[in-house]
Amino acid sequence: MAKPTASPLRTGLVHLALGAYTLIALFPVFLVVINSFKDRASIFRDPLAIPTPSTFSLIGYNTVLTQGDFVLYFQNSFIVTAVSIFFVLLFGAMAAFALSEYRFKGNTLMGLYLALGIMIPIRLGTVAILQGMVAAGLVNTLTALILVYTAQGLPLAVFILNEFMRTVSDDLKNAGRIDGLSEYSIFFRLVLPLVKPAMATVAVFTMIPIWNDLWFPLILAPSDATKTVTLGSQVFIGQFVTNWNAVLAALTLAIVPVLVLYLIFSRQLIRGITSGAVK
Amino acid sequence: MSTVEQAIVDRGADRRPRRWHILVFLAPAALVYTAIMILPLIETLRLSLFNVKDGQSVFVGLGNFNVLFGDPRWAASFWNALRNNFVFFLIHMIVQNPIGVALAALLSVPKLRFGAFYRTAMFLPTLLSFVIVGFIWKLILSPIWGVSPFLLDLVGLKSIFSPWLGKPGTALIAVSLISVWQYVGIPMMLIYAAMLNIPDEVLEAAECDGVTGWSQFWKIKLPLILPSIGIISILTFVGNFNAFDLVYTVQGALAGPDGSTDILGTLLYRTFFGFQLQIGDKSMGATIATVMFLIILTGVCLYLFAIQRRMRRYQF
């Protein structure tokens, strides 16, 4: 039988397998990015070649930036994502604090009620959500998206933050109470700073589905002024489907912000997942 | 009336002062969540029992469901979407999750070099939006571009290439595999975490007994990560029966060719919102949403009551 210590052959095979899958995961993205910098003829002649001075072309980016309103789409996505995360973190932390700190009637029930939304997707209520937004005059506003995403993000945020807040020492909070701090200052000045790492994890988990969502922008805010970058690129690519330069450039532009954020937060995100925050 | 008021005052006086701050802390989250999520969900369930007749909303009981399951205009597309959705889920279960477990097992090899790099790279597709993933694969699988035939030629398999996304027989499999490519990162990470949590003593004890390598994986690690596999299965189930974006991006709202990639999410979109000649139908939209809700609820309950309770035994 094999020895407990890994043999060089086995290590080699492990790296071969992992390397092969890494290639499968990265290659499609890589292919799109390199071809977005090439002229039309060389995209088709030699798709796998890296752009050289003779094949280099920015015509696709030119089309995207002059024909599409991508700056506006990015701005919309950014506003929606940032404001939703802010409210998810603030309201989520407040509710988690109430649930973890105080004993009151209906505490467990409230916790279960808020946790329902982790498993039941908000999308199933779309028919009535649209009806409500129409009644409130919020169709085609970013507010509608922010409201929906805040509601969507809250259950998981409360669940994760609740677990972390239980680990904040009671002595600290009681010391604050003896010093005459109100419950509000205990929450904002003592507890919140201590759960910052958990808040960062929640922020990353909340951000990804919001930034990438296509369903609600399509249904609640499809107007030109409120398109998010996900919907904007969907529509743009649909219109320019035969203009390969423009499609590849639009895809690359949509990948870049995700890539940058991922490279900044990947450690946080992976630690968040592997520490069991989502279980 | 005054005695009632008196009683309330008396009872209040016995108690501690009302702790208003609890209400202040809970109210914003509870209000937003109830107003935007729970009430619309209940309203959608209620709407599925009504239909419009002569411009008026009339209670029809389970009539909408009868139409959806039995009326020739609806039933064919509904059962088609439901069947496709199960195939979609099944492909995820038999492709995505085993690959995820295998990658996690490889990643958790002790003293692995570049482990962080592999993890980061393999998780990247999970973060991309469906729009990006859908179009990337549409381009790669497109016979016009010729990247796939070229790559298949490198391994001598050029003859198997065909425009998979455009053929009714293969389109659903192709779309499912694109989704698998995107989401394999999630089972990989969760299983990886579960494997890191296996105590060293257990593995050392196994090694002392001569259980190493493959048999160690099958006999020791796999039973211990079963709870995580359960979680992944239910996450996949909920995600798949709620899916929409990828099919919409790759195949459009009609989920072509010939409805072969139509799943419940795209059917809901077309029914509720209308598409091309079809006019949006709120009642039938709510009915389909209700069916999706019941399917997901059944899955979650099954998981919570049956599977998780059984798996608890394996946990520490």
UniProtKB/TrEMBL annotation, chain A:
The chain crosses the membrane at residues 12-34, 78-99, 111-130, 142-165, 186-211, 246-265. GO terms for biological process: transmembrane transport. Residues 74-265 form the ABC transmembrane type-1 domain. It is a multi-pass membrane protein. GO terms for cellular component: plasma membrane. Keywords: Cell membrane, Membrane, Transmembrane, Transmembrane helix, Transport. It is found in: Cell membrane. It holds the Pfam family BPD_transp_1. InterPro entries: MetI-like, MetI-like_sf. Belongs to the binding-protein-dependent transport system permease family. This is Carbohydrate ABC transporter permease. It comes from Phyllobacterium pellucidum.
UniProtKB/TrEMBL annotation, chain B:
It comes from Phyllobacterium pellucidum. Keywords: Cell membrane, Membrane, Transmembrane, Transmembrane helix, Transport. Belongs to the binding-protein-dependent transport system permease family. It is found in: Cell membrane. It is a multi-pass membrane protein. This is Sugar ABC transporter permease. The chain crosses the membrane at residues 20-42, 86-109, 121-140, 171-193, 224-244, 284-306. One of its GO terms (cellular component) is plasma membrane. Residues 82-305 form the ABC transmembrane type-1 domain. Its main location: membrane. Pfam families: BPD_transp_1 (PF00528). GO terms for biological process: transmembrane transport. InterPro entries: ABC_transporter_permease, MetI-like, MetI-like_sf.
